[in-house]
Amino acid sequence: MSSENNNFRLIDANEPPNISVLSDFYPHLKIHYCDIHPVKSWVLFADKRGSIYLFDYLQNDMLHSFSLNSMFESKREETNLYRTLDKNFKNVQLPYWYDEELFTKNEKIGDLKAVKFYDEHVEYWKKRQVNGFMMYEEKNDLNHTSSNTRNIHEELDDEGNTSRSMGTMNSLAKGMNMNRPPKCIVLQTDMRIIMMRYDEVSSLMFFFDEVKSSQLDNKNITCFDFLYKQPIIAIGCSDGSIRFWDYQQRKVINKIILNAHTKPITHMITIQRDDPLSKYPGLITTSTDGNLIGWNLDTDKADYIETKCQGNIVGLVIDPYSGFLITTGTDKTIAIRSSTTGKVINLVKMKGSMKSLCMVTSSNCIPSWLMMLENKKQKRILYRIPANINFDQEFLDKHCIAVENYSQIYGKDQKDPKFYCLVQHPLQPSLCFLCTSFGLMMVKMDHHRKPPVSSGYLRSLPTITTPNSTFNSPNMNTLSPSVENQQPQLIIDSNISEDKRRYVLYVREKNIYQRYVITNNDGKKEFSSEKSVYSLGRIANVKLGISYSGKYVSVFWENEKEYFIFDITKDWKNIASDRDVVNIVWSSSDDTFAVLKGNEFSRKILLKKIEHANLKLVVETVTTASTNIDDIFGGILLGVKYGSQHSDENGFQFFSWNSGRDAFGIAGTAYLPKPRFLEWDSLTGKCLMAYVDSYAIFSYKPVFKMECYVDERIESAFWWNATLFISTQLEIKAIFVSNEQLFSTVLASFDIALYSHISQKTPMDEQNSLDPVPLPRPKGILSFIDVVGDTLYVLDSYSQIHSINNISITPSIKFRMLVAAGLTKKAMQWIPFIAQEIHDYLSDFLCAFGYTKQACSIDSLSSFKRLQLCFEHEHVSYGWDALKYLDDHRIYYRSDNIYSSNKNEEDNLELSKLYVRLGSVGEKRLNKIERNQIDDVTLILTSPIDNNHLLINEEDENSLDKEVTERELLETIEQCYKRASELDPNTFSHLVIFYAKYNVDKLNELKLELYNRLKRFEERKDDVSINAYRKSLTICALVTKDSQLASELFKQQQNKLSVAATLDNSKIEDWTLYLNSKPYSLPVQIGQ
Question: Own/partner pairs for 483-488, CB < 8 Å, 24+ apart?
């Protein structure tokens, strides 16, 4: 995998991530409450006075704003209007809320306490957390938590099914859609919970529903949470009771837990339950009575009660990965607790009590960091501590952030600046919003980046180099049991077992872990269990690299600027190391690597090679355009990115690994824009270069040029056998690149709720679809690992492996991946498993990659589509088959013209034109054969080498091509013109001219046939047919130099030829002279 420069500051891996302010909004507002939408770029915030704002932070657009008082004033006016109408008119249709509103219209609104989003997106992602399963993740071995840590990913889903298949996801999606929640903004005051529906199209807010304290025995509302398995809200009350409101039925249900606490409930959070058949999720509550209680809502009884918890708990958050609770108390402690027992696992004393906790992820795969605000009245300090709370007081004091750090820049007029609230994005762990007395601040952890991972294949270098030795053969053995294994064309060490050739390395905490690709008992490929292969000794920022042979692994310590190279086939023996290094990258053709050395002002590049475990210097100093080098990139060519002295438009250059010179002979200058990172495809030689807000794809052979440019920011990319996988902030996509075209499909997305109700698909529907319903995208920035057993594996910031397995159940994706890799014969084997409705699309896909014959050979293509392809790509034999089918069935034409009284005649005319067109296409191919533009034996017009320069296409030897000889092509053209003349006599002229060009011996026979037909129709007095046959016979007479017959026919008809000859025998002689000079080259238009 290529290295990447993400422009982050290299800090100590044991220090918390830095906080960078991306934007600040509305510095004149004091913002106390905030919520972030998981999928849309929306933030909901409010002040204490009840002013509420819905804001798009990416578009910098205020979508809506209103106040509680104005909202309820409008509601009272509406109620009075209905009351007047009800008194003065009969049969007035009153809304469902009228009676209750009339009865409680003087009830107080209360002070605003919380704001929340609630819609299908929020419900879906919260339900995934509450249910505690990951549909795209292996159950047992791909989760990485300690043995005493309860991992929510390993639980059963709410259907009681341990399967991680798409069927499970679809059942969840269907259940979600059956009772799809409204798009709401939820407001909590101490007297009400209000659900306001939001209309995205009109950007209007209107009242939806509410529950009032009068419906709760006049108890104030202190907190609430949604029971995401049911359309129910759990409400914590001031008397310590828990009550429940069904927002669909608009009523408080007959379910209440009285005396849950002796004092007001302060926090409430839903969690998973061990029982998959449970109707409700678990519920954890805290109170000012000092108790923390876990509830079984099926029985309304407590699973556990923890008393005298840290004085009173003032902050509560759940770690979504470990499942632990983290609580802070008034006794100035912070604790990690088990969510199933409430017991304290670890507890640390702090200087003050904390609130507003949130979790963030660092780049180096160590445990999360906890961000929190102090709970004092001053509210002026933000703390950053490890989520495992293993820290000392010195660490705490060193890494706290005072509010003045921001207020001096963003709130200069503030006399008493304060922090009020800290909210983390639900799906982007590095993005947070700070609510302050000087506005809303959007901040990001700039230390957050892709986790280190690299995949390799143990191989020996080829003994004979070839022009294509720079590139690998495709490894498609994971796409199907029916597709034979195709290993790289290399000499493999026989001492290495089959199940230990492909492997992956990744870093978690202080260790490097390894997994092999093995074959399970079902004969399918999968990853083995992980094994720690090397101890780093400490948590550090490291990069991993693997050589082409797969034997050598480089570990680069970024902060220490030092690298080590190990031979992993000899128990990780250290064979090379160096210091004062900025980066190290590998070649993708042999065991050559480049080292960037020096300081920020002057750097140089060295090329070294490992041969038989010995280090050899290839180039002492690469001749670069400048010593101001920012970074280097490995792959097929060595990429050099220059520093600030070069512009972004011309600050990048490629070099040869063998000579260290410019790869294209352009010395002394940089000629490409600076990329953020790049990825090479070792199969096709294509190169992806990612920029700030876009990416481009370049081809390397036969010339280096840009094929595609896409205006989209990507976070990471990975080539696998000519298929490109990319990750954006919202989606994971598979991209197929050919001939300046891009075909893409979404494999995973945060917007899974949208996809689930757009396409209500069952697993069988998935197999018949072109694109699958995307799986939920793993959170955070991802690194791609490999494709194994029809499954794409990615690594998240916690070094947890996630599997995107919808490739395995969507044959159309397998088909496209095989075509992209040049394995069309194997791709065609998948067509029977793909729905016929999308076969036309598959044919277009094949043509885009240059496989036009295979496209025409798809039996299930519609005849019209097959004809279209045959005309466009000159495949006459397939076109003849398609036309014969249309001729025999006439389905296409009947459906187009069912009301015609001359139906059969119109069909004949249309079919005749198609036959003539196909014959003309065939003649065009014959002309190319004569000019030696194609092979006159195989007649292969199009070749996949335009897309894949590096594969020797062995499939052509056993090609499906039916047009193998010139003789057969001539016979097909003759049949086309014959059938056209049978359907429409006016087209006989085409057959005449075809014989004149290619088969003169048949002209006299044809002339006799035309003469006999003419006489028969003259007896029938069919004027239309007579004129048609006279024209054709006239041309035939001219071609055969039968002057007597031609003269007789000129006298019998008035047509274009008679005008040309003016009924004069001297003109006939002129025609004879013309025919003698070019006897077989008459214009095609004659006779039409």
Answer: 483/818, 483/823, 483/826, 483/829, 484/826, 486/823, 488/457, 488/459
Pairing of strands 783-788, 775-776: unpaired
Tokens of 863: 């005849």
Element (H, E) at 895: helix 891-896
The answer to whether 1069 touches 1046, Cβ cutoff 8 Å, is no
Model pLDDT for residues 813-856, shown as the tens digit of each residue: 899 999 998 899 999 999 988 888 888 889 999 999 989 889 98
**Radius of gyration of the chain, Cα coordinates, nearest whole angstrom:** 38
Tokens 């025409």 appear where? 856
Concatenate the DSSP letters of all residues of 410-445 into one string. H-TT-SS--EEEEEE-SS-TTEEEEEETTEEEEEEE
Q: Measured between alpha carbons, how far is 735 from 728 in angstroms, rounded to an integer?
A: 13
> How many whole angstroms separate alpha carbon 869 and alpha carbon 887?
18
- SS3 percent helix, strand, coil of the chain, rounded to 5, is 25, 30, 45
- pLDDT digits over 327-345, tens only? 988 888 899 998 888 999 9
Count of beta carbons in the 10 Å neighbourhood of residue 90: 5
Distance CA(550)–CA(284), nearest Å, equals: 50
Which residue, 817, 756, 824, 821, is CA-closest to 790?
817
Count the alpha carbons within 13 Å of 395 in the hemisphere toward its beta carbon.
14
Query: Pairing between strand 603-611 and 705-710?
Result: unpaired
Compute the distance between CA of residue 726 and CA of residue 690 in angstroms, rounded to an integer.
Answer: 10
Closest CA to 594 of 622, 561, 559: 622
Dihedral sign, CA of 744, 747, 751, 753?
A: positive
CA–CA–CA angle 384, 346, 342 (5° rounding)? 110
What's the one-letter identity of residue 885? Answer: Y
**Distance from C-alpha of 882 to C-alpha of 867, rounded to nearest angstrom:** 6
Global confidence as pTM: 0.76
Please say whether the beta carbons of 1040 and 1007 come within 8 A: yes
Euclidean distance between CA atoms 137 and 793, whole angstroms: 9
Higher pLDDT, 75 or 875: 875
Beta strands in 520-561 (DSSP E): 525-527, 531-535, 542-546, 552-557
In this structure, are residues 487 and 474 in contact, taking their beta carbons and an 8 Å threshold? no
In one-letter notation, the amino acid at residue 651 is: G
Q: Where are the beta strands (DSSP E) in 376-524?
A: 381-386, 401-402, 419-424, 431-436, 439-445, 453-457, 502-508, 511-519
Distance between CA 376 and CA 219 in Å, rounded? 28
The predicted pLDDT at position 478 comes to 39
3-state SS class at 670: coil
Indicate left, alpha or beta for 300 from its phi (over 0: left) and psi (-120 to 50: alpha).
left
pLDDT of residue 239: 93
Helix axis angle, 1023-1039 to 988-998, nearest 10°: 10
Q: How far apart are CA 819 and CA 810, in angstroms?
A: 15
Angle at which helix 876-889 crosses helix 863-873, to 10 degrees, equals 150
Q: Confirm if 479 and 814 have CB atoms less than 8 A apart.
A: yes
For residues 568 and 553, the answer to whether their CB atoms sit within 8 Å is yes
Question: Cα–Cα distance between 915 and 773 in angstroms, integer?
Answer: 43
- Compute the average pLDDT of residues 464-481: 41
Least confident range of 9-23, 312-326, 577-591, 1008-1022: 9-23
**Do residues 215 and 252 make contact, with C-beta atoms less than 8 angstroms apart?**
yes
| Residue 138 Ramachandran class (φ > 0 left, ψ -120 to 50 alpha, else beta) | beta
Distance (Å, whole) CA 773 – CA 511: 36
Supply 956's token pair: 């052509």
